[in-house]
Every structure is written in C-alpha cells, then in structure tokens.
Amino acid sequence: MNNGSKEMTARTEFVNCNICHNNNYKNICTKFGLNLVKCKHCGLVYANPRLIEEEIFERYESPLFFEEYLTALNATSTSFDLGFIRSHYYFIIGLIDRFFAPGKKLLDVGCGAGFFLKIAGETGWNAEGIEISKVASEYAKNVVNVNVYRSKLEDIKFSTESFDLVTMLDIIEHLTDPLRTLEETYRILKSQGIVIVSTPDVRSLSRMFLGKHWAILSPAEHLYNFSKKTLHAVLSEANFRVLGIRNLLIFNPEYTHDKNQFRYFFWKNLHEKIEKKKFMENLHGFEYLDLMLVDEEIRKKIRNKRFTKRMKRSIYRKAKSWLRGDMLIAIAKKT
Predict the structure, then answer these.
(1) Which of 160, 164, 166, 174 is in Cβ range 3.0-4.6 Å of 104 for a Cys bridge?
(2) Are 1 and 257 in contact (CB under 8 A)?
(3) For residue 332, is pLDDT > 90?
(4) CATH code of 32's domain
C-alpha cells in the first residue's frame, strides 16, 4: 500500500458532491495531506480537495501494479495462474449467469490486467474491457491476451445499446465522475441490460475498528467511498432501476495503513474468532443465495423452493444488519 506521500505537494482541486452537486460538507479526516469529507445533504463520502485527473492517472503507471496488484492475484509480469483467477471470479461469473446465457456482449470498465475478461471469455461471453492505465492495458493485451481499450469510457463513444452487460468491479471509487460514467453506461447498454458494480462499503466493521487507518480510506486513490444508501442514489440518478444492493461478509484486517495500532491487533484477533463460528458459515450461504435472488422475477420463479425459507430466518437477517463486511455489490437494470 502506497503511503501517499507524493500528494503533499501535488496539484489538487475542489469538487462538489457527485450525486446531489451540493458543496455543503463536513470534514471526516485528513490522510496524506488530503481531506475526506461527507456531504451534509446526501451523505456521500469523498476526497475534497482531491488530486487533479492528470496526477491521478500518473499513479496508475507506478511499479505498484507489479509489486502489489499482480502479486495479490498470484501473477507475475509474464504469467498468471489461470486456476487461481477462475476461483477468484467464480462468484461473479455465477451471478451474471443468473441474468444472461453466455454469448452476449460484456464490457468490463476498469478491467485492470484483464483477468476477469479472460474468465468471462472462457465461459462464452463476447467480452471487452476498458482500462486507463497503460501498464495494465498492455499487460492485458500482451500477457492475458484479451481485448482492451486504453481510454476512459466517456471518450470511446460506443454506439448506443452496444452491450448486454457492463461490469464495474472495484473501479467506481476511483472514478473522477462516477455519475457521468454511469450515465454513459446506461446509454451503451441494451434495453433490459444489466450493470454490476462492486465497491468497498464505507460502513464496514473494518472501518469502525481500524478508523482512519483503514486502507480503503485513501483519498489519493479512492476518490469516493460509498455506502448502500449513496450507491443506490448514484445508480438511481443515472436512471437505473436498482434490483438490489448487498453487503458481502468479506473482511481483511490486514488492510490498514498502521499495523502498530491497538485497533489493528484487536480487530485481527476478533476477526479470527468470528470466522471460526458456525453461524458465519451459515451467513455466507445466506448472503450468496440472497444475492442470487436479488431480481424479483427470479425470486418468483423459485418462491416455493425449500431454501427460500432459510433466507427468511430472522436471526440471519438481524446478524447481517450489523455484521457488515468490506464489500458492496449492486445490480441494476436499464429499463
């Protein structure tokens, strides 16, 4: 994790809230010389002032792509573990198969090294990607061998209704204008097309325990920090019908900017104990089914299945209301 020291002298700009365009906010914390603020009108948490776009794009060409990004996905500068990548994206592939049969057109925005595109192509999707980073897009083309455009989505000018599905996996928090990108996504999706968005949950337990040292709170990279409420709001503002937003019970206590804090040791030990509990296994099963059934039309088809009764058990729903993981995933439709 980069300590962000460069930002102390970098060029910055002030921006209004991306959802409601209000400029009335309160400061939450300061990290690496940049402020995180919260909109007093809609609750969106964002970096303000933030690095200008040129400075942000420069960061994506750093050696961290090889030192951290590829390492975390069990890959090197010249090779990758296809089996590991398959298991990493198994959940997402299963989810999109709920809505479409393979063979449809898919666009992955912010595709990074192109690993998801590789797996989607393996399963029959006609998959393309967009990536702003030169080093990442070249890796995707030359090593992973997938079709990637090096550009911002708004600059490519795809034809209207070009894609059946758009995925935005861990990218919306990096965008300089999430609303504009979602509006462009809406335009290029076919009628009844689906967008799937994953992003960190700013209301995660990890943030509560790790405080400002939680590495997700990194205003040089994560320009926006969404909650379920604000993610729903920005999707709705872009005219999507939100089918559902779910929090996933994924925790990474190691993802902190300061491992000398008592908060870190406390959360790490507590997390280890929680993960050993039987109810956590049940909760993981519950949230998987709940997400797969997020579309009401699918729920109706299997309403009488036995496992839907399990999903109504109040103990699991109550547990999920306070046991919030690090990740949100949203599914929305163009109507």
Answers:
(1) 164
(2) yes
(3) yes
(4) 3.40.50
Q: Which domain holds residue 32?
A: 5-59+152-333
Omega into 49 within 30° of 0, i.e. cis? yes
Element (H, E) at 320: helix 314-322
pLDDT score for 88: 92
Q: Does 3 score more than 70 pLDDT?
A: no
Domain contains 64: no
Position 131 in a domain = no
Query: Using CA atoms, how far apart are residues 324 and 250, in angstroms rounded to an integer?
Result: 9
Q: Could you tell me which residues come within 8 angstroms of residue 239 by beta carbon, excluding any fewer than 6 positions away?
A: 183, 186, 334
| Average pLDDT score, the chain | 89
| Interatomic CA distance for residues 225 and 172, integer angstroms | 9
Q: Beta partners for 141?
A: none
Cβ pair 192, 333 in contact under 8 A = yes
Is 251 among the domain residues?
Answer: yes
